[in-house]
Amino acid sequence: MVDLSTGIAGGYCTKLLADGGAHITKVEPPEGDSLRMWSASGAEVDAEAGGALFSFLACSKHSVVADPGAEADAVMLEGLLAGADAVVWSPGSRVAELGSMAPAEILRRHPHLIVTAITPFGLEGPWRDRPATEFTLQAWSGGMTGIGRGAQDRAPVFVGGQVGDWVAGAHASVATLASRAARLGTGVGELVDLSMLESQILCLTYYPVTYFEMLGRPWRTERKPTVPGVATAADGLVAVGCGTAQQWHDLCAMSGHQEWIDEDSTLTITEQANLHAAELYDWLKGEKVEDIRDLASAFRIPNAPVGNGENVTAMDHFVERGSFVTNPRDGFTQPAHPYRISPAMLQPPRGAPRLGEHTETYRSAAVPVRPAPTPAGAPDRSPFSGLRVLDMTTFWAGPSCTHALALLGAELIHLESTPRPDGTRLIAGIPASVEQWWERSPIFSGLNTNKKSLTLDFQTEQGRDLLLRVIATCDVIVENYTPRVMDHIGLDFDTVQALRPGAIMVRMPGFGLDGPWRDNPAFAYIIEDASGLSWLTGYPDRNPYEPYSVGDPNAGVHALNALLLALEHRRRTGEGVLVEAAMVDAALNIAAEQVIEYSSYGALLERDGNRGPAAAPQNLYRSIDIDEFGRADSWVAVAVSTDAQWVLLREAIGAPDWAMDPALLTAGGRRAGHDLIDQHLSAWCGQRSSDEIVDRLWGAGVPAAKVMQPHRQSEIPQLAFREFFEEVGHPVNRAALHSTVPMRMSHGPARYHTSPAPLLGEHNHELLTELGLSEGEIAALEADGVIGRVPGARGAKKVSG
């Protein structure tokens, strides 16, 4: 592979591919990738070697310097492209921005290549050339407001740590591997056009457009802190979660307040928790962190310590699992691989290259040229046509992994049971008095189109036997239960291999298959707390806010990366593969910068509201508008990431005297004067509408964005141009727009959603008939409660032991 990218997104994409065994040649201009000089804490960096974050992302790669004006270097670069299988490209370097290096132009000259382009909005469309930063993309995505993070008395707050760049990189790796899977054996290349905005929508919001269109109301209308969330205990911070009614009841009992339990209440769990928040926080303040965690674990309530760059590496679970390793070149601490694969196929990291370290090697050695595609080419097809997957997942993390497979052509059998249907069927707030209430969840719909539903109570002997028969027909099995569930029914990798030699089993436990936290329940927010993702989110004078969003879909896209590597291994060897894609390992990787900065430079990164290290000024500013809920709560995001953009901003606002201070011409000066800049920009924005502010600043070339309500995503013209949303009908619900995937592939598919999310047990008869069951046998299973189409029934005969 040739890496023509700059920054975190492209660097992380190619790191994941290098971990899987790809040979990555990074092509840099003479001044190097700008990421070489990056340190979030402002530490001094060796330009030739690169800073610590670059050293982490560039592990196992080669570095070649190409001067854009040198003919010999142009010839060398053409040779590299001719000998490569794929290219990862992003704007930002003098090499990548050569006209001859435009993604479409690369593919025209080298039609065998997979060319994956990573851009803020996509290569085509009305916003294709608009400036953006990770911060302004979060604003456009709706991720700052849609999950209810923060508090209504302050501005919305972004998720810290440049998290959008990391998840875009993980999606770009998936997109590259998916394109390769579709094109194998044909020699035909493809242009893969990945939008970072669309990646953020999938990872920072919870299907808000589908929710709004199906139910006629938004998911959230105001910001409230998660309760308990990250709380102050007697000796530090602790995270305690409450995601289900049972967990709320257990939390009431655990804190000695059984009187708070009201099973007949019309209030949601969130509303009940907020009602008693003050008393709950008072109780937590009187207890020690470990005592709270021991008690919460005994009650099976999600909990975790609150991680950051200083403390996370010493947490007992991560120490026992070897979750951190030493950087092979520079000796700092970095996360281990984000997933584990057996047989071993992930490559141990090798030291990052110095700038141009391998240039002479490539000048003097010709790279073998890849064969040109056959004249007839290859028929367009979905990457995973013919792949059969048993989807034993629930809620968000697991289904987001398998949903991508379904959208890209795989046959997905989504396994549920009537006693325990998929949890997303139950969280839409539909009263049980509504007919078929369990079929009306927009969240379930958003995650499960193109799937079939099979209900089997595998806690019964009959259900387990049928489950094993289904497994024998599948290429891939994906599950995200806590390990004890699979232990109880005796379903492990060896069992799967005995039933289906060569099958791939993907296990997605929250904290992994071993270690002291192995059996702890893990919801997204607890994963965010433990890994450090929460630590950088919020205001310095308040406890961290849980992102409450990225932990699940980030786990899903990393599990999918691992699965695609496993499929490649099986293609080559015929062997089955076990993938352990723990949610927390994926989170530790996208929070890597905190540990890297602390272990390299002794710098503990801290949350700072909406300010951040990548731009100055960077903040949210209130406009004069009244929002759709009748509040003075409309905001714009502004992020000045270069000195040139500062000059553009000050001219766009009329060149006021305060902005003409020469000290503000440098990033350091603007950072020192951030309070003054905020004061004046707040006053300027407060007299104008959001549309006027964005038109003025964005039109002048300054990264700016409206802080969108997430259910308004479909109003963004760039998303309409790329057909990111597709309308999907449903037998029970009104037709609604559904999100797709964050990339467009030149060989299709032209449409992603081919069937609505299934009704509970909708395909029982079809799938059990395929197994050879008679009408009478199927009817008997339904009468016994082993299968069914209505929640609640349970079969009588349990699995022994």
UniProtKB/TrEMBL annotation:
<dbReference type="InterPro" id="IPR050483">
    <property type="entry name" value="CoA-transferase_III_domain"/>
</dbReference>
<protein>
    <submittedName>
        <fullName>CoA transferase</fullName>
    </submittedName>
</protein>
<dbReference type="InterPro" id="IPR044855">
    <property type="entry name" value="CoA-Trfase_III_dom3_sf"/>
</dbReference>
<dbReference type="InterPro" id="IPR003673">
    <property type="entry name" value="CoA-Trfase_fam_III"/>
</dbReference>
<keyword id="KW-0808">Transferase</keyword>
<dbReference type="GO" id="GO:0016740">
    <property type="term" value="F:transferase activity"/>
</dbReference>
<dbReference type="Pfam" id="PF02515">
    <property type="entry name" value="CoA_transf_3"/>
</dbReference>
<dbReference type="InterPro" id="IPR023606">
    <property type="entry name" value="CoA-Trfase_III_dom_1_sf"/>
</dbReference>
